[in-house]
Amino acid sequence: MTLLGAAAGERGSSKLLDRGLSSPNACDGRLARRSAEREGGPRVSVVVLNHNYGCYLKQCLDSVLAQDYEPLEVIVVDDGSTDDSRAVIESYDGRVISAFKPNGGVASTMNRGFALSHGSVVIFVDADDFLLPGAVADHVRAHRDPEVVRSQAYLTILKEAPYPLDTIPGEPPGEGDLCDLVLARGPGAFISAPQSGNAWARRYLEQVIPLPETLKGIGADSLLMDTAPLFGKIVALKTGPRAVYRVHNNGMNAAKAGLTPAQIRKTVARQEARACRLEEVATSLGHAVDRSEWKSRSWRLLTLDYLAGRLGDEGMIVPLTTHLRPVWRVRGNALKRLFLAAALLCIRIAPTRLSLVLTGRIINPRYL
Length: 368
Hints:
Blueprint: H1 7-18, H2 26-39, E1 44-50, H3 54-65, E2 72-79, H4 85-90, E3 97-101, H5 106-116, E4 121-126, E5 130-131, H6 135-142, E6 148-152, E7 155-159, E8 167-168, H7 179-185, E9 198-201, H8 202-208, H9 220-227, E10 233-236, E11 243-247, H10 249-257, H11 261-284, H12 291-296, H13 299-310, H14 320-324, H15 334-349, H16 352-362
Parallel strand pairs: 1-2, 1-4, 2-3, 6-10, 7-11
Antiparallel strand pairs: 4-9, 5-11, 6-9, 7-8
């Protein structure tokens, strides 16, 4: 399904635009993009998202400015940092477009950066990550297909703490026409690269930005990933890692120590909010969805619901057969599925504290 193809899609896009979800600088942006495209390739906007990452910010900005692609627009949005981030940003003079705002979270930072941008292709980069040479050019090649709304690439992991992978994602990322898959399975239906490994078609972002800023604790990039297949095709780059993803000590140590009841409840609420957002966009495009079916296909969501119920939350009873059923849909060999089923059984029979530790070990920390 293309962005401008089906009538249902067109009707849904209109509904989203009617709710004010279009870019506030759409007219000026279109003029700037047409001028850039007459000169050569499409203009690309790289938006660096920063909050108290002054110690990493120079490396990130330098990696963007060193990209061998023109025309390139570099924007950095500071989300109320209290470290030396402002001084680092101001040292770049006119080489970057900068904006400073009160702390409001990642979604608000992305909204501000997108409003300042003009590129036909937009890349959001977390300030503690950085791009590898050729990243922008490789993403642009993927976007030559007018049906592509998102390209994604592997990231090399820079480890400040032990981590089981050298690149992320750990499995082949999803690509192609994934609309039916997302409608059937819901959020997280396919493997995705984190924020800095993606490039987005502006014509898609104009349909879904501004992102809701009231949904605190939700990875704002996941909201874009969830809905992109409803508007067009996804391309997975085959050129190797195109960015570097920094793994910090705090997240890994927390996962190893085990989840807390507060983390369980927060994650359940976050995944529910993602499902609500995807349902909102899908129904606006004329699709019928069943959120209860989405949850029944995810062993991760069912595990978190089971633990929430065990911790006393009402309405979170997960029967054993329901919990194990999605395991048999997991990709891989039978041994992998048997191991996962055994782990889930251990979570159900172990004391609560041990169950929380086991869950922290088998669920990717990025999911939490």
